[in-house]
Amino acid sequence: xxxxxxxxxxxxxxxxxxxxxxxxxxxxxxxxxxxxxxxxxxxxxxxxxxxxxxxxxxxxxxxxxxxxxxxxxxxxxxxxxxxxxxxxxxxxxxxxxxxxxxxxxxxxxxxxxxxxxxxxxxxxxxxxxxxxxxxxxxxxxxxxxxxxxxxxxxxxxxx
Length: 159
Fold this sequence. Notes:
The longest helix has 27 residues, at 123-149. The radius of gyration is 21 Å and the shape is globular. 18% of the residues are buried. Strand 2 and strand 3 (75-79) form a beta hairpin. By secondary structure, it is α/β, with parallel strands linked by helices. The chain has helices spanning 15-18, 102-111, 123-149; strands at 44-53, 61-69, 75-79, 95-99, 120-122. The protein has one domain.
């Protein structure tokens, strides 16, 4: 398992998380009350975001990192001069790495010669999948009916 030595330099918890260490969640419930069973195998769930710069076609140059372990509310904030030889969070099979457009964060891992996380949840991909399903449902609900009204047959939906 990678070194987690930077956790000692983690920033203090936000005031909203200090009471009991619980994260706020929708409808006034704590995050622990809304966990999906698919998250049960993971001992740690890290939401990770890098800021970086790069020239067109070049590898990213990480500037800073913020990582938030969602079960414990631990936060890690690092600037480029604080990056170590390993990430400040585990990257093995028992830790879930959560990011929006995770390929960018993984690119920063590679630029820093860090291990790539084994288990990744990319929220961009999940959003695209969800919104594509919604668009398809809207098309099937409205587009096919409208097309049939003007004489455009699609051949796969009966009205």
